[in-house]
Design goal:
Strand content: 15-25%
CATH architecture of the largest domain: Orthogonal Bundle
CATH class of the largest domain: Mainly Alpha
Number of strands: 21
Largest sheet: 6 strands, mixed
CATH superfamily of the largest domain: Hypothetical protein af1432
CATH topology of the largest domain: Hypothetical protein af1432
Radius of gyration: 31 Å
Amino acid sequence: MAFSQLREKVQGYLPLEKIALVEDAYSYASKAHEGQMRKSGEPYLEHPLQVALTLAELQLDTGSLVAALLHDVPENCGIPVAEIEASFGSEVARLVDGTTKLGKVPLRGPIEAKQRGSIAARGEQVENLRKMLVAMAEDLRVVFIKLADRLHNMQTLDALPPEKRHTIAQETAEVYAPLAHRLGIWELKWQLEDLSFRYLQPRKYHQVVQLVAGQHLRREDFIKQVIPELKREFERVGLNAEILGRPKHIYSIHQKMEKYAAQGKDFNDIYDLFALRVLVNSLSDCYTALGVIHNLWHPILAQFNDFIANPKSNGYQSLHTTVMYQGVTPLEIQIRTYQMHRVAEFGVASHWRYKEGGKQDINLEERVGWLRQLIDWHRELSGAEEFLESVKTDIFNDQVFVFTPKGEIKDLPIGSTPLDFAYHVHTDLGHNCSGAKVNGRLVPLSYHLKNGDVIEIMSVKGGRGPSRDWLNPALGFVKTSHAKVKIRQWFKKQERTENIERGRELLEKTMRQLGVASMEREKLARLFQYASLADFYGAIGCGDITTHQIVVKFAAQQQQPRLVEVAPPKENISAVKVEGVGDLLTHLAQCCHPLPGDSIIGYITRTRGVTVHRQDCYNVVNEDERERLISVEWGERSSLYPVPIQVQAWDRVGLMRDITILVAEEKINIVAVSLTNNDDGSVSIFITLETANLVQLNRLLDKIERIPGVLSAMRIERELGEVSS
């Protein structure tokens, strides 16, 4: 393809001297890539040219276009960046160098693909993502070049082998498409999503394509009927507007189909397959058009959104309404100005023209503040996993928009709580938070914020600081990594001795609660890569490690499949592996009630196969015939296991109701309940539960202990018996 197509695109917004510079870059790249071919069979120069054409669609500045044309020259042609700097200046050289370095950062390597559970591979992937996003934060134009580069690679993906196609498509779906969405670049987002969907789920992709094709003629006829009718109404009131049909993209339709399927609906129920977009000249025209539309057709009020008064965090603004056309057909209509339309299509990139000497957009820095924040997080977060968590929860998640009591809009990830809001406003407000009101009513700190909520934080001056419970994921107090980081930093500033002692107490309590108090603390510390037990306790005490993480790690370690799995008969429900033995019946001991996550050992009986006990079971520890003990491991089958717990509480009306409701909410079955009244007014409640593993049990016991009046909740051994013979 000649340079003429690129010239045609840029001459609409670049001065002649800038176009000449872009043409110089094209000639330089053409000479550098001469004779090189892509795996698709086309000349290599086609790739940087297509990248530049995509950026020209976004009307990006000269530096971006020149860097796009040259971005593969250092890597593929052996020409140093210093030579590019000598010919095109330091700004272009910096962009080329940044893009080249990102090209060497694989977000998914062959190790990670083959060993998805590998800790080393996971850490490498996360660290590479950190490098990529931080590099992007240094100069946003690197983001635009990288997204355009990825788009053309996806468009020519057929030239690669299947395994490579899948890896690149997965990376695109997980990182690049969400990044384009967060930047508001809809034009790139939908293309990246559709192409990823095509290679990741080809069968479903082609199914949606066929369904859409079947509706194409009906949709075209419908739009041709509606547009003139609406146009006449606009002309009648003197409103100048452009009306367009708005096609729904393949991946977007697939998502709607998945959502509707869960509600028992099908493809024909998707109301916004028929959609219009109305473009007008001014803000007031938007609301005038809305009034005309609602006067003409009956609106579905639940489907109305005013994103002009409440813009999305990526800068998107529009009025969204759905009406019943002629009372039978739902019709979605978006109303926006031409400037809003440009922002909706090109997002942050639409604000970049000021680089060519135009007026700077004062909202640009605000709209990309989340990306600038990556640099701060890069310095603050101690580990790559923390960084990945922050990216996923605070950046790539959909947003919820709420208000301060003064009417200021704040955007947070969906699922955020009043505590997240408090830390978002100010760190000290979060530290001293004692309660929250939403829309004038008191709510728990674990309440999930909704669009339009007005949040008022109640605080205590000179308070004691955050609670360690806020970091417990089972309790759901905080969602955003920003809040979690600030809470952890507060605890780290406390006296080390206090943290160590607090950590020791938390660990001991958790181990007693789960009935695994005899486990080696040093071994557990090594699982978390702490050489010193004191450092391990300190990490627990300051919140770097939660008790939930400890239980998960301990349970996973105990369930490592290392032995040959027995093929047990139907009545064998223990899902246990017996070392060096074929088909052998196993039973769970009733004296200690082992469950996955416990260290276990088998006892060979005379008539009933192998009885499985916890290794610290009284009957095993005191067994004289040691030769009848045999190594066993938990298998991988999914089963429920009976486990007795004891709850100590002050007796009151409604206590049992509160406990049973909580257990039911955790989707755990109660097998048996008994109760003993004590002389001091307390009560001992014995409950036998059917639970899947230690992690689920730990989460339940944590929540039971927070029921008003409950003193403690822990796993017990209710009876001691002889080892079955």
